[in-house]
């Protein structure tokens, strides 16, 4: 009896010292003995030590923004992380390439090589709400989907039939009208994918060949509602035309909202000039031939482009890069970033990222004036551009006319607007008698992958888009006979063909890229954080001191995938994880591995038959989610961080939920154990 009283009489300092030798389970158990022990067992210093030790997190990393309890964080990683398999969906009959969620979290869409796009309910158990076979529209397969902001429309991107085609198409389905097909838009190359610009307008791409390894990528703004009551209703608009060299092109476009309330500290634009990379000594001898067997995943479009499509030059000149690029990514990480990162090593964030995250927690952005930096200096010519530039090819007119009529644009020059007009509300602008409409008052970033030395996408390009007006109504339209006559006059008129190989001479005819970041590797996936502040990128790195002798012979790529984190305010890399997950295919067979970012987690597919899950703030790997084949895509439920879906070449979609959700839904323990134990504490 005296001994029991002695234990109850121990001071808190001694109890803390004793409890510090316990694991998490034992610490919770001793907290049930009495109120005094419960109070001591909840000591934050004890849980902070357990948290960093058990989850293998650097002790210098502070608690996540908005969180106040280390015990709650420990419980979150244990009970509220989507690591348990609750459902396996087998409705697809071929490889599943992509999965995406609606913004309200009620639906998710899947795309597959069986040619179907399917929309699923997220309620347990998940079931198909809508389904459409796109092979009836000459599609080979569906590859990508995206819901608009109001979740009323679904953008679906696909690839046309053909053994050597880079052509694709975008279809828009109306979710509020029984999944009615609303419009179809050509998209070339297909791995531009397409994206929503606003709730009713989407972006698609076109590729025009100009010369040997030279092309132009044109990005078009398309209205999703193309069933117009009047032929004078304008429905498309070319926004940008970018110059491509070295057999490269614009790929994987996305739109991000610019964050103007934060402090920016980016370097000035380099005027659209691509960085020149430092070369090494290694060169692959031959290109790998495409396998006639079953192709894994969704390959890049260059595999479908025959080299005969490029006009043959009069002479071939070997090009070698010898200058060091000022745009090379250099990140000031902490001391631990020098250690070799294993599969379960964390994402390493720079000190700048940690400072920004800390500042965002209760600190007004006006107080963050440590650096006297300025906003990125972007060139913003007035939109829209003049359409009468050097004619690219016959394809420019013929392909577009196959789908929709393009009418003459009737925009006014907005450069002379007064400050009073700039402060007008959106409603008043839309009521302008000219019929022009401000599509979106927010400034946006156009983000895309591209290249400068080879066809593989190794650079990320940024183009800032300021709000502009779209002419909904064309006041005067030329008759058919007038348009035929104008075309005849154009053909008969003497024309001076520009030297497309001289990039500087024809630079004024193309739009400049505001900023480029070179990752020195094959970029295979990108994902935005929910607040559009950070861009996460999957990349397979090239070897150091690589050399590119010829655009069609890129350097060999690593079998590991790196994750890069880019701050879209400063346009600098603020985080990285090296050799994080696996990919095995060579350059000419490399395909897309999509990743997704939620408020608390980061997830990615991989070629080693697993999906990977990391905590976004602490950077530690939380789980490997098993499939029986390549995992192509992952997606978080934006309304529920405790639900994750993975899509695989094994023809299945798997839904992963947290222990908390499994218990809440009263799901029987048929759930498959993941390799979570390899990442999580053994005591959990």
UniProtKB/TrEMBL annotation:
Pfam families: F-box-like, WD40. Residues 377-388 have a biased composition (Acidic residues). It comes from the Eukaryota. InterPro entries: F-box-like_dom_sf, F-box_dom, FBXW5, WD40/YVTN_repeat-like_dom_sf, WD40_repeat_dom_sf, WD40_rpt. The keyword Phosphoprotein does not apply. CDD domains: F-box_FBXW5 (cd22132). SMART domains: FBOX, WD40. Residues 302-327, 359-388 are annotated as: Disordered. Gene3D superfamilies: 1.20.1280.50, YVTN repeat-like/Quinoprotein amine dehydrogenase. Residues 302-312 have a biased composition (Polar residues). WD repeats lie at residues 89-121, 624-656. Keywords: WD repeat. Residues 4-50 form the F-box domain. Signal peptide: none annotated. This is F-box/WD repeat-containing protein 5-like isoform X1.
């Amino acid at each position: 009896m005296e001994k029991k009283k002695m234990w109850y009489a121990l001071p808190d300092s001694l109890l803390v010292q004793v409890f510090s030798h316990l694991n998490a389970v034992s610490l919770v158990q001793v907290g049930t003995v009495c109120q005094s022990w419960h109070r001591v067992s909840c000591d934050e210093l004890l849980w902070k030590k357990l948290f960093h030790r058990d989850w293998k997190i650097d002790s210098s990393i502070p608690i996540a923004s908005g969180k106040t309890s280390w015990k709650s964080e420990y419980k979150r990683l244990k009970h509220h992380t989507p690591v348990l398999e609750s459902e396996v969906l087998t409705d697809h009959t071929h490889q599943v390439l992509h999965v995406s969620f609606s913004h309200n979290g009620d639906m998710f869409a899947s795309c597959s090589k069986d040619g179907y796009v399917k929309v699923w309910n997220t309620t347990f158990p998940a079931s198909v709400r809508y389904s459409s076979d796109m092979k009836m529209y000459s599609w080979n397969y569906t590859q990508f989907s995206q819901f608009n902001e109001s979740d009323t429309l679904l953008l679906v991107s696909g690839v046309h039939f053909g053994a050597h085609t880079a052509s694709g198409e975008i279809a828009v389905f109306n979710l509020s009208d029984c999944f009615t097909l609303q419009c179809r838009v050509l998209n070339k190359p297909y791995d531009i994918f397409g994206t929503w610009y606003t709730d009713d307008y989407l972006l698609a791409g076109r590729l025009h060949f100009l010369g040997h390894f030279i092309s132009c990528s044109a990005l078009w703004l398309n209205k999703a509602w193309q069933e117009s009551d009047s032929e004078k209703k304008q429905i498309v608009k070319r926004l940008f035309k970018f110059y491509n060299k070295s057999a490269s092109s614009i790929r994987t476009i996305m739109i991000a909202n610019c964050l103007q309330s934060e402090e920016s500290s980016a370097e000035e634009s380099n005027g659209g000039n691509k960085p020149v990379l430092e070369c090494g000594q290694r060169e692959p001898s031959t290109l790998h031939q495409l396998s006639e067997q079953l192709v894994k995943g969704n390959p890049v479009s260059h595999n479908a482009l025959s080299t005969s499509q490029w006009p043959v030059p009069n002479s071939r000149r070997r090009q070698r890069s010898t200058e060091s690029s000022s745009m090379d990514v250099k990140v000031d990480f902490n001391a631990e970033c020098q250690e070799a990162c294993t599969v379960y090593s964390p994402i390493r964030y720079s000190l700048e990222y940690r400072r920004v995250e800390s500042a965002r927690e209760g600190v007004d952005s006006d107080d963050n004036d440590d650096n006297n930096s300025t906003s990125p200096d972007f060139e913003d010519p007035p939109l829209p551009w003049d359409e009468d530039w050097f004619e690219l090819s016959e394809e420019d007119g013929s392909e577009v006319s196959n789908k929709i009529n393009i009418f003459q644009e009737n925009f006014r020059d907005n450069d002379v607007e007064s400050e009073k007009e700039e402060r007008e509300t959106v409603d008043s602008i839309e009521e302008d008698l000219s019929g022009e409409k401000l599509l979106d008052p927010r400034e946006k970033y156009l983000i895309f992958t591209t290249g400068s030395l080879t066809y593989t996408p190794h650079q990320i390009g940024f183009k800032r888009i300021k709000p502009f007006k779209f002419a909904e109504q064309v006041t005067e339209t030329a008759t058919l006979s007038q348009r035929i006559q104008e075309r005849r006059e154009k053909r008969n008129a003497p024309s001076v063909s520009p030297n497309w190989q001289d990039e500087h001479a024809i630079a004024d005819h193309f739009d400049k890229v505001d900023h480029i970041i070179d990752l020195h590797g094959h970029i295979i996936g990108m994902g935005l954080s929910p607040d559009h502040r950070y861009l996460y990128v999957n990349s397979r790195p090239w070897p150091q001191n690589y050399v590119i002798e010829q655009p069609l012979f890129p350097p060999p790529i690593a079998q590991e995938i790196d994750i890069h984190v880019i701050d879209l305010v400063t346009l600098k890399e603020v985080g990285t994880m090296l050799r994080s997950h696996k990919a095995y295919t060579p350059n000419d067979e490399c395909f897309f591995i999509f990743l997704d970012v939620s408020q608390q987690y980061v997830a990615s597919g991989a070629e080693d038959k697993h999906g990977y899950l990391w905590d976004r703030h602490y950077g530690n790997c939380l789980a490997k989610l098993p499939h029986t084949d390549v995992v192509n895509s992952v997606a978080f439920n934006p309304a529920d961080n405790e639900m994750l879906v993975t899509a695989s070449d094994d023809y299945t979609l798997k839904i992963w939920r947290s222990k908390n959700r499994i218990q809440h839904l009263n799901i029987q323990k048929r759930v498959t154990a993941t390799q979570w134990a390899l990442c999580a504490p053994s005591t959990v």
